[in-house]
Amino acid sequence: MARAVEVPAQALRETLLGMGFVSVPAPGFEEVFERSHDKDRRYVIRVFSTISKGAESARAIGEDAIRIVAVYRPSPIFEATRGVAVFKGKRVFRAGSVEGVLERLRERCREAYVRCNECVREDQAKTARSGGRAA
Question: Hey, what long-range contacts does 84-93 have (CB within 8 A, 24 or more apart)?
Answer without folding.
Answer: 86/43, 86/115, 86/116, 86/119, 87/111, 87/112, 87/115, 87/116, 91/65, 91/66, 91/67, 92/65, 92/66, 92/67, 92/68, 93/2, 93/65
